[in-house]
Amino acid sequence: MIAFQDQLFTLETDHTSYLFRVTAFGHLEHIYYGERVPDGEIETLLTKHVIMQGSSVQYDAQKDDTYCLDNLPLEWSGIGSGDYRQTPIEVKLADGTYRTDFVYESYEILTGCVPMETLPSAYDESNQTQTLIVTMIDRAGGLKLLLHYTVFSATDVITRRAVLINTGEASVSIRRIMSMQLDMENEGFSLVTFDGAWIKETHRHDRTLKYGQYVNSSVTGASSNRHNPGFLLYADGATQSHGRVYGFNLVYSGNHFGLAELSPFDLVRVQLGINPHCFDWTLESGGHFETPEAIMTFSTDGFNGMSAHFHDFVNQHIVRGDWKGKERPVLINNWEACFFRFTRSKLLRLARQARRLGVELFVLDDGWFGKRNDDHAGLGDYEVNRKKLPRGMKSFAEEIRALGMLFGIWFEPEMVNPDSDLFRAHPEFAVTTPGRTPLLGRNQLVLDLCNPAVRDYIVSNVSNILDDAKIDYVKWDMNRHISDAYSPMLANQGEFYHRYMMGLYDVFSRIFRQRPQILLESCSSGGNRFDLGMLCFSPQVWSSDDTDAIERLKIQEGLSYLYPLSTMGAHVSASPNQQTLRQTSISTRFNVASFGCLGYELDLKHLTMLERKEVREQIAYYKQYRRTLQYGRFLRHDTSKKNKVYWQTVSLDQSKSIAGVYQPLAQAAEGNDILPLSQLGENKQYRMQTKGQRVFIRRFGGLINHLLPFTINPNGALFRWADRLYAMNDCIETYTASGKTLMQGVHLNNQFIGTGYNGNVRMLGDFGSNLYAIEQLPDSNE
Ligand code: GLA
C-alpha cells in the first residue's frame, strides 16, 4: 500500500493512487492524486518545468536554472525560497526571521495508525492501515517536521497531519501550521463549501476556481455553522453519479482554515488545518506541536462516490464506543414540546404517549437544573430543579425506565450564566479579557476550558449525574460563539483557541471513554459544531435547530456530502414549524427525518387520533428499515426537475432500499415523474411499494365538496371534526422488476393536478413527499 523506491513515494488505496517524490534539492514534489494507476509510470504524470517562468526566483541558479518552487506542485512549502503561494507554515524563529525551507531527511512506514497525544484522530481496529512518516528538516531554523500519511485502503481515504519539533536551543513561535497541503493541476475545478448560519446550516455552495485564493474558515471558536470544515473540488462536468470529485475534511472542532488557491501557473493549492487567526504557539526547545488530522478522498463516481468513501470512513474509523455500527433508538425530546415549562407529570405524560407510539428513548432537554426557567440563569449549576422534578433525577430516570424506555438528558457544560451559583462563587472560571466588558451570547459566558480546575468541575458534576441516574444518552450542547478569548492560565494568549479545544477533548475523554455505553449526541445550537472531531466522541450530532422538513432537505443533503446518515439527528416536530411557520404534513416531516437518526420533538397530545396512528405506523416502518436508513449507502439523485429532491439509501447487501421523493413546490399541470434509483443488484428481483400514508382532508379545503354527496363549510367546525376522524389514503404503487430495470427509472403515477381524484393519484402539492421501499424477493440472487 505504501512504497518508497527511487525517491518516489507510492500510496495506494483500493481505487486511488497518491504519488510524490523527493526532488534533487530535497523538496517533496507532488505528482499525482487520482484513479489508481500502474506502478512506475510517472513521466506522463509529472508537471513539466523545462523553462524558467518570467519574474520567478530560482532556487539554485547554478545547479538547475529551471528549478523554481513557485511552479512546482509541492507536498509542503515554506517562506522565502521562491514559492509565492500560500505557505503552510509560518514560524518566527529564535533569531526573529521567518524563512523556512524544509527538505527531506528520512522516512518510515508503520503498520496501523499513530494515535495523537492531544487530539482525537481516526483509528483502525484491524490494523490494516499503514502510516508513512516523512521527516523533513530545516537545519538553519532548528526545526524538524514530520509529515504523516495514513492510508485507509478499503475506504479510499488518506489522512494527513504534521508534527513540528523544535530541535534548536531557543523557543520559536508558530504562527501558522497546516495539517496538509496538496498541489494539483487545475481541471477546471469548482469548489463546494457547506455554509450557513443558525437554522440554515450546511447549504451547498459552488464556485468555479479563478486565479487567487478562496478561504473556507471559521473564527468563532468552533468549527461553526458558517462554514463546515469539509469541502470538495470537482472537475468540470461532475454530477452526483459521474465525474472526478475530491473531498477534504478535518478531525477538529475549533477554528479551521481551508484553502483553494489557483496560481498563475494553473496549479491548485489545497490546504487545511488550524485557523491562523489569533494563533501563536510557543514551541519550547525540544518541544513538539501536532496539528489536527486532515482527511482526503477521491472518486471518479461523482459526488455520491466521494461521499460513500467518507461515509464508510466515518462509520468505521471515526465513530467509536458501544454505539459504533449499532442501530440508534427512536427518541422523543421534550424541547420543542415544552421549552422550559414542564413538570414531572407533564414529562411523564409525554413519555407515556411516546412509548405507546413505539418511541424507545426519552430525552429531557434544557431546564432541569438550577434556576433555569428561561435562558437567563442556571448554566454552570447542576442541582436538579426540585420544583420541576421534586423527587430528583434518579427517581425520574427510574420512572422513565419503568415505562420501558431509555433515558437521556441535556447538558451545556461549557457555559455559565452570570446568574448562577457557579459564577457567583467562581467568576474567574468564565472567559473574559482583562479591562474589557465581556460579551454575552444567549445571556451566557464561555467557561475557560484552558483552566484545569474548570475541567475538573465539569467532569465531576456531569459524571456524578450520569452515574447516579444511570443515564443512557447525553445531548451535549454549546450555544454561543467564543468572544473575549483570554485565559489567565496561559502565558501566550495566541494559544487560547487551540488549548480550549484540547481542554474540551480532555473533558470528553474523561467523561465518556470510561462510559462507552452512553449514546452521546453533540449539539451546538444545532449544527454549529458538526465535525469529525465531535464524531470521535459523539456518534451522532443534532443537525440543526431547524426542524422544518423542507429546510431540512437542504441541511441534511448538505451534511450528507461529508457525513453518513448514522450521524445526523433528525426530528419530526410540530406544524406550523417553529422556525419557519411553514405547514407540512406529518408524513413529509417523517419522510425527511427518517433519513437519519429519527426522533420526535413535539407535544404529542396536540396530535389528532389519526395523526397519532400515523406516527405509530411511521415508527414501525422506521424500525423495519432502520439499518438501511441509518447505515445504508446514501445517494442523492440528479434531476432535471427543479422542484424535486430524490434521495435513496441502499442496504450494503443491496437487498433493501428506501427512496424518498420530495416536492418542495408544486407546479401546475406537472408532467410525469420518474423516480431515479441506483446501486441495486442488476439481476436481483425486487418488489417496490409506496409507504402508505394518510392524506388529511384539511389539505383540500372546499375541494372536498366535490367528493361528498352534500356540502360542508371548509372553515367550519364540522370540517375540522371530520378531519380528526377521517383521512384519505395516499396512492400506493407496487411494482416487481429486476434491479436493472428499476435502475432505468420508475415511471410513477400522475400527481394531483386538479382534474380529478382517485386512489391512483399521487397527492403531493407543495411540500409533498413519498417514501418507497424496494425489497429483494426471496430466492432472487444474482
Ligand atoms: C439549543 C439546542 C436545542 C435545545 C436548546 C435548549 O438551541 O440546539 O436543541 O437543546 O438549546 O436550550
Which SSEs are present, and which pair or pack?
Layout: E1 2-5, E2 8-12, E3 16-22, E4 28-35, E5 89-92, E6 103-111, E7 130-138, E8 143-152, E9 157-166, E10 172-185, E11 190-195, E12 203-208, E13 212-217, E14 227-234, E15 245-251, E16 256-262, E17 267-274, E18 281-283, E19 288-290, E20 293-299, H1 302-318, E21 331-333, H2 335-338, H3 344-357, E22 361-364, H4 392-402, E23 406-411, E24 415-416, H5 421-425, E25 445-446, H6 452-468, E26 473-476, H7 496-512, E27 519-522, H8 532-535, E28 540-542, H9 549-560, E29 568-573, H10 586-593, E30 597-601, H11 609-624, H12 626-631, E31 633-637, E32 645-650, E33 656-663, E34 674-675, E35 685-690, E36 694-696, H13 717-725, E37 727-729, E38 734-738, H14 739-742, E39 746-747, E40 768-776
Parallel strand pairs: 21-22, 21-30, 22-23, 23-26, 26-27, 27-28, 28-29, 29-30
Antiparallel strand pairs: 1-2, 2-3, 3-4, 5-10, 6-7, 7-8, 8-9, 9-19, 9-20, 10-17, 10-18, 11-12, 11-14, 13-16, 14-15, 15-20, 16-17, 24-25, 31-32, 32-33, 33-40, 34-39, 35-38, 35-40, 36-37
This protein binds alpha-D-galactopyranose (GLA).
Q: How would you explain this protein's 3D organization?
A:
α6 packs parallel to α7. The chain is globular, with a radius of gyration of 28 Å. The protein is built from 14 helices and 40 strands. The protein is of the alpha+beta class. The site of alpha-D-galactopyranose has 11 residues, from loops.
